[in-house]
Amino acid sequence: MEKKLTDTFGRVHNYLRISLTDNCNFRCFYCMPEEEYDFAPASRLMQASEINTISKLFVAQGVEKIRLTGGEPLVRKDAAEIILSLSELPVKLTMTTNGSRIHEYLSVLKEAGIRSLNISLDTLNREKFLLVTRRDQFQRVYDNIHLLLNEGFHVKVNMVVMKGMNDMEINDFVEWTKHEPVHVRFIEFMPFSGNRWTSNKVVTLDHILQEVGNKYPIERLQGEPNETAKKFVVPGHAGTFAVISTMSANFCGSCNRIRLTADGKLKNCLFSQHETDLLTALRSRQDILPLIMDNIKAKAKEYGGQFHQDFENIHPEDIHNRSMITIGG
Ligand code: SAM
Ligand code: SF4
After folding, report:
1. What is the spatial distance between Cα 231 and Cα 219, in angstroms, rounded to a whole number?
2. Residue 74, CB-side half-sphere exposure with 13 Å CA sphere
3. Which of 64-73, 112-121, 246-255 comes out lowest in average pLDDT?
């Protein structure tokens, strides 16, 4: 297929991440703003049919993979309808979820042909889970991960590593991969509006590898093209681990992602300040394709043009962005 969504750095965008809602049943402190936060009213969100229309347009422009995210995608009332309608498109459909509602959606996920899911779990400790998410749902999420494993899904577990919070659990997560085919992904803590980020809370790729390497032998695994995760295995373990080193060793040079927020704004980078309002344009019957093209052409080389890889020098108050929950991770 012709590579249509190409930016000025020659990066081809074939991976669309769609946020279904900015609402969530958890309250992870690193994702939500600290102040009181009002979720967007349903009328401001893309409706199921609008998501379908916009997705089809992207697919016609070469998008091959769609990830549903949020907020928590499965708190949206019409999530099943959206999942099933997108599953008709010729794309690899997947989702990032906090795992709390998987048991209610298992048959929908199967019917949609979804075989791989990312589940967020930052700790293996129930009290700490409550501290991070402000919800006492550790067992539910943990059980749902096992439900998926038993059903043969490929499960990636996202763990945002934060110094002093859960970095002492890195090897507990690696130990988990010994007998179970879970694919743990350690994510470097990223700065967003109001999320209590400071550079000294970032646990880097180098640090994680050192920590794991002190206890286990490690082998690097070959990644897929455009992969954000650097993958590793402890020989003999059933699962693997990976590091998403956004802050200390970025992968902007091979970025193929573009994001649609739940209120229909196109963001060409997690950190981009610039947004294009596709939903309003669609509702006023404008041709949105030129808007999409302009947005992609405006993509900055790295980090939305807001900072560089020397993350120790970032002042979070200088970054202008939404909070993660309103972008869609
Ligand atoms: N609610 C779903 C979930 O938690 O998986 C999907 C949305 S969530 C915003 C997507 C991913 O972004 C999660 O894995 C979450 O841990 C990650 N995330 C949120 N804030 C982050 C931050 N400040 N730094 C790194 N990752 C973050
Ligand atoms: Fe909700 Fe996911 Fe954000 Fe946690 S990380 S508050 S589960 S959207």
Report:
1. 9
2. 19
3. 246-255
Report which ligand 1 atom has the smallest distance to the Cα of 191: 23
287 to each of 63, 116, 190, how far by Cα in Å?
A: 18, 34, 35
Determine the distance separating the centroid of ligand 1 and the alpha carbon of 287, expressed in angstroms: 32
Take atom 4 of ligand 2 and give the residue whose Cα is closest: 28
pLDDT digit string, tens, across residues 223-249? 888 888 999 999 999 999 999 999 999
How close is the Cα of 3 to the center of ligand 2, in Å?
33
For residue range 89-133, list pLDDT tens digits in order: 999 999 999 999 999 999 999 999 999 999 999 999 999 999 999
Listed by start position, the domains of the chain span 15-327
Specify the amino acid at residue 82: I
| Residue of the CA atom closest to atom 11 of ligand 1 | 329
C-alpha to C-alpha distance for 157 and 96, rounded to whole angstroms: 10
Measured in degrees and rounded to the nearest 5, phi and psi for residue 169 equal: -100, 5
Q: Which CATH superfamily is domain 15-327 in?
A: Aldolase class I (3.20.20.70)
Mean pLDDT, residues 213-228? 92
Ligand 1, atom 21, lies closest to the CA of 31
